[in-house]
Amino acid sequence: MEDKKHMPIYKRLVNSYMSDIYSGRYLPGQQIDSINKIISKHKVSRETAKIVLKNLAEAGLIVQILGKGSFVKAEEQKVNKWGVILPLYSANMEQLIGELLSVAHKKGMELEYYLHYNNPDEEMRLVSSLIQKGYDSLFIVPNFNEALTADYYNRLRRGNTKIFLVDNTMAGSAFNYVIQSYDLGVKRAAEYLAGQNKGNFLFVKDPAWSGVNMVAESMFSTFTHYGETIYNRKVLSIDHHKKITPGFIVEHRIGGILCYKDVDSIRILRKLKDWKIDVPGRVSVVNYGNTELLVYFNPGITAVDCCYGEMTRKLEAMYERCPEDKMEQHVILPKLIIRET
Predict the structure, then answer these.
(1) Which DSSP category does 243 fall into?
(2) Using CA atoms, how far apart are residues 339 and 168, in angstroms rounded to an integer?
(3) Same-domain status, 189 and 296
(4) pLDDT digits (tens, 9 = 90+) for 148-187
(5) Are the CB atoms for 53 and 81 separated by under 8 Å?
(6) What is the pLDDT of residues 90-125, one digit of tens each?
(7) Which of 99, 210, 268, 271 has the smallest number of Cβ neighbours within 10 A?
């Protein structure tokens, strides 16, 4: 994200007007500030005011009518497209996209996915631009610090686009959503690891995120609660699999490892085999997410299944009903798939 303090004044104003348009402070067809109004309101030059309006017009947000002023562009006609907006592309997200794709085809919809890279500004821009383009529905996996987008969603003008939050939301949002209970998934992982041996627990985070990953922090908090309070184990965390060494395993008496992503589970298992550490006897491994990579790897990796198929079936049913007078909100209960680790 660009540092707003060092952003040119015209760009700050463009972003401010974009936010006002996207959030519905300016409605389609409504006149926005003129060049003279921008000059007096923001104490900028005429040239800067012209650049602001030119940028908004080039972004397709306003229409400039000679002699009349600048007006917010009307929403485009509804199109048979579903948009999936994701914080990253991963094996778990690939599963979700695949499930949604099959339903989209059944409904005669084209499906496109977009990445916001855990960037709240980019998430808001994508949501608003796809609404304006007339997308039938949006399925949004939010950024992992939803406090940064809460005000935006509270003010969002959705038009005719149906909006669903998917997989997680930390904000108890007033939207239709189908999410999974990460707490239950972590609880089932901790229970399994505790039953394997007497060793301590290790949570391997994903280092790829920018900003705060509230889901990962919540998972670690739950893992710590069950490990320390229920099973009397010390619980540690690391942000990169490369920090695991034979000495680390021995020094901290690690007996159970929970990984945030499948490739880390595979890398760690390969290391444990190379170090002649018995799996699952000496150390057990569970991955959060049941991807096909875990099935094909030898030994097969025990995993928390996020139940994306069930999640998508709920979304399909909600799409058909899509109640306007009340929200439908569902929480899917993950399952533990026990394999060789």
Answers:
(1) G
(2) 26
(3) yes
(4) 888 788 777 777 889 999 998 765 566 788 999 999 999 9
(5) no
(6) 889 999 999 999 999 999 999 999 999 888 888 888
(7) 210
Among residues 13, 16, 35, the alpha carbon closest in space to that of 25 is found at: 16
Quick check: is 338 in a domain? no
Last residue in a domain, options 51, 72, 93: 72
Long-range CB contact pairs, 40-45, < 8 A, 24+? 42/9, 42/13, 44/9, 44/10, 44/13
- What tens digit of pLDDT does each residue of 283-295 get? 999 999 999 888 8
Task: Confirm if 259 and 268 have CB atoms less than 8 A apart.
Answer: yes
Asked if 167 contacts 110 with a C-beta cutoff of 8 angstroms, the reply is no
Asked whether residue 191 falls in the same domain as residue 145, the answer is no
What pTM value is reported for the model?
0.83
Provide the 10 A C-beta neighbour count for residue 70: 21
Other Cβ atoms closer than 10 A to 111:
18
Q: Which residues contact 315 (CB under 8 A, 6 or more apart)?
A: 100, 103, 139, 164, 166, 178
Are 197 and 295 part of one and the same domain? yes
Say whether the peptide bond before residue 28 is cis (omega within 30 degrees of 0).
no
* 191 and 291 share one domain: yes
Report the chain's C-alpha Rg in angstroms. Answer: 24
The Cβ of residue 79 has, within 10 Å, a number of other Cβ atoms equal to 13
> How many CA atoms does the CB half-sphere of 331 hold within 13 Å?
9
The alpha carbon of residue 76 and the mean position of all alpha carbons in its chain are separated, in whole angstroms, by: 27
Q: Tell me which amino acid residue 76 is.
A: E
Which amino acid is residue 221, in one-letter code?
Answer: S
Same domain, yes or no, for 157 and 213? no
In a domain, 337, yes or no: no
- The domain total for the chain is 3
